[in-house]
Amino acid sequence: EVQLVESGGGLVQPGRSLRLSCAASGFTFDDYAIHWVRQAPGKGLEWVSGISWNSGSIGYADSVKGRFTISRDNAKSSLYLQMNSLRVEDTAFYYCAKSWTGYYKDGVDYWGQGTLVTVSS
Amino acid sequence: IVLTQSPDFKSVTPKEKVTITCRASQSVGINLHWYQQKPDQSPKLVIKYASQSFSGVPSRFSGSGSGTDFTLTINSLEAEDAATYYCHQTSSLPTTFGGGTKVQIK
Fold it and tell me: Which of A59, A107, A114 is opposite residue B48, by nearest beta carbon?
């Protein structure tokens, strides 16, 4: 069974940093691209970032480019999102989501349960 | 690429047929996928590449379309289908989602 478990969310002040983690199991982690997708409370879905199977190809939404950094550790079957210079508008549930191929341009077939990041003073 | 879903909200009775549309601002080929999100849950894949049903999804769900116009159809709606449905394009980066269609059971 595919499982994606996010952690690291919480309350943080504007301008501060936070690091999210996603622990994967139930599939061969290093065969697949992984994404971060966020959802502000009561709102729709927004793609944040994606990373290919070997970290060779990475992409970011314009809204987070230069502030967020995605990375993965295939040996640990883990995905990370380093979030710097956080803004109030970054407040959202952050989902770790598995692609159905090794390339992050493709769609998502499994999602984690999400971790809530709240940016507020 | 902007994806526009319609309607935003639909209230339906059980066993009714439901049709949700997603229109893309430019052609996405068949790189259009549909997700179901129930309250307080994460999204689940329903349809990939416009018309391919994902494993385990009930046969009452179907998708069609190509280019800029797509449809998700739920035949004979069941109470468990109450959810918000999102379309998602992966033809062009950044990938984008539609605004969602909330389906409520009367």
Answer: A107
Question: What are the phi and psi torsion angles at A75 (to 5°)?
Answer: -65, -30
The count of residues in chain A is: 121
Q: pLDDT tens digits, residue range A18-58?
A: 999 999 999 999 999 999 999 999 999 999 999 999 999 99
Dihedrals phi, psi of A83, to nearest 5 degrees:
-115, 115
* Calculated CA dihedral for residues B24, B7, B100, B17, nearest 10 degrees: -100
Asked whether A81 and A94 are in contact (CB, 8 A), the reply is yes
Query: In A, which residues are within 8 Å of B96 by CB distance?
Result: 47
- Please give the Cα distance from B57 to B73 (Å, whole number): 13
- Using an 8 Å Cβ cutoff, are B78 and B59 in contact? no
pLDDT of A117 higher than 90: yes
Distance (Å) from the alpha carbon of A113 to chain B's nearest alpha carbon: 5
SS3 sequence of chain B: CCEEEECCEEEECCCCCEEEEEEECCCCCCCEEEEEECCCCCCEEEEECCCEECCCCCCCEEEEEECCEEEEEECCCCHHHCEEEEEEECCCCCCEECCCEEEEEC
pLDDT 10s digits, A79-111: 999 999 999 999 999 999 999 999 988 999 999
